[in-house]
Amino acid sequence: MSSVLIFAPGVGLTAGYHRLWAHRSYRACTILKIFLAVIGASTWQWSIKWWVHHHRAHHQYTDTDKDPYNARRGFLYSHIGWLIGFNPSAWGAVDLSDLESDPVVLFQDKYYIPIALATSLGIPIGIAGYGWSDWLGGHAEVERARLLQGDFLSHEDTLRDLPSMDWSKFTSQISRGRCLTCIDNIVYDITGFISDHPGGQETIISSIGRDSTATFYSGYHPHSLNAEAILTKYRVAIAQGFEDDLSGYKDK
Predict the structure, then answer these.
(1) What is the CATH code for 162-245?
(2) CA distances (Å), 209 to each of 8, 35, 176, 183, in order?
(3) Over the stretch 209-236, which tens digit does the pLDDT of each residue have?
(4) Which terminal CB of the chain, N or C, has fewer other CB atoms within 10 Å?
(5) Entry's Pfam families (predicted)?
(6) What residues does each domain of the chain span?
(7) How much is the pTM?
């Protein structure tokens, strides 16, 4: 049971909170969303809505005062210190409209405490207690899993290794011949992919120098999960401060 308690919450956090809701890396049916929301709550990293808010702010305003865990304030602050006396009102504004319209996210946000208590304590202890009359052992398994779970959840996302790129550098690189586009606050160099684009060169060329998020995720021809996987190979930077500069270049 301890193995399940170690890995299941990690799946809820990484596949659910992080990849599904924060980065919208794939689509999920309602049943899968409920599963990820429930087991993700057991990590005690608060609700999906709260977690996604600060994570999107981090990627959009990397290492600035609007970044919740600004690394320029030191290693300890970016990993632990930001949680002490944190001030969400100081975080940079991000679009959470997709979460506001997701009933699973809203339900989990409203009832987070009872869900977290049930999944992290009640259910595991109950299984051991009712299953083989070992209530104390069930509690011990929970605590053991908590200690081991830290290593599983502490890995750094590869996106954090990418450099940041502001608007001036973005346009400068394009003027030098690089074919860059921005999707979900990540800059991609699609120079080598234009000729291989299944949808034709005209469509992908029109995305150069623009925020193509809307086109990529909900355009006339929505992209498949395979397309999203292919796109990851072309990531080159995290967009920084693009909001105002891209106002005239966003998808209509």
Answers:
(1) 3.10.120.10
(2) 40, 38, 12, 11
(3) 888 887 787 655 566 656 777 787 888 8
(4) C
(5) Cyt-b5, FA_desaturase
(6) 2-157, 162-245
(7) 0.50
